[in-house]
Amino acid sequence: MNPSLTDTPALSRRGLLQLSLGASVFLATVGVGASLSGCSSSQPANGLLALRDSDLPFLHAVIPVMLNAAVAGETIPAAAGATLQSLDRGLAHLSPSMLKLTRQLFDVLTLGVTRGPLTGVWGAWENASVHDIQEFLSRWENSSLSLLRQGHSSLLQMVMMAWYSRPESWAHCGYPGPPAI
Q1: CB distance 105 to 155 below 8 Å
Q2: How far is residue 181's CA from residue 174's CA, in Å, rounded to a whole number?
Q3: Inter-CA distances, 135 with 60, 101, 129, 147, Å
Q4: Could you give the C-alpha distances from 169 to 73, 80, 82, 174, 181, in angstroms and in order?
Q5: So which domain of life are we looking at (predicted)?
Q6: Nearest CA-CA partner of 137 in 123, 125, 120, 112
Q7: Nearest-5° angle of CA 93, CA 45, CA 129?
Q8: What pLDDT, in 10s, does the model give residues 115-149?
Q9: What is the CA angle 72-178-84, rounded to 5?
Q10: Dihedral of CA 117/121/124/125: which sign?
Q11: One-letter-per-residue 3-state SS of 90-147
Q12: Using one digit for the tens of pLDDT, what is the confidence trace for 88-106?
């Protein structure tokens, strides 16, 4: 007798592994395809060391939302700008292979073909609401796909490290600063 749909699990371990593998191949293909087709320039934006013009709309939209709990509301725009500068300096010091992986993450998040299905933000990042961005971050943080959880973790760590490396962030968390030598 064949089991009914209610008797079988929604997604088996093997099915989850196959789905994860398929998603990994898809994301890698899109990232490589974008790089090879010229959709994503490897040249830094004007005045920046590592971040590209295509990365900036995404980062300008996401950074303020990620800093919301760590920064007082009226200082978020200045903190977001400072964080973007720190992030750029940090990325400029990555190894070429790590910078390539980071750019692939940004490509997946900014390329229209992958942005909508993977983030739930179907329009341009500039038009995304705070709620849309929070939903995207929550979706990736709680995803059943480890690749999306890793992407969320990487993005969160990059932004938070860029913010907390700045002296103006230290008072909020009670850090007096490095000892004088």
Answers
A1: yes
A2: 20
A3: 17, 24, 10, 17
A4: 13, 11, 10, 9, 21
A5: Bacteria
A6: 120
A7: 100
A8: 999 999 999 999 999 999 999 999 999 999 999 99
A9: 45
A10: negative
A11: HHHCCCHHHHHHHHHHHHHHHCHHHHHHHHCCCCCHHHCCHHHHHHHHHHHHCCCCHH
A12: 999 999 999 999 999 999 9
Closest CA to 110 of 162, 157, 61, 63: 61
Structure tokens that stand for 20 in this block: 């994860």
Q: Which burial class, exposed, middle or buried, applies to 106 when counting CB atoms under 10 A from its CB (0-12, 13-18, 19+)? A: buried
Rounded Cα distance between 169 and 166, Å, is 6
- Residue 3's pLDDT band, with cuts at 50, 70 and 90, is low
Q: Is 3 helix (H, G, I), strand (E, B) or coil?
A: coil
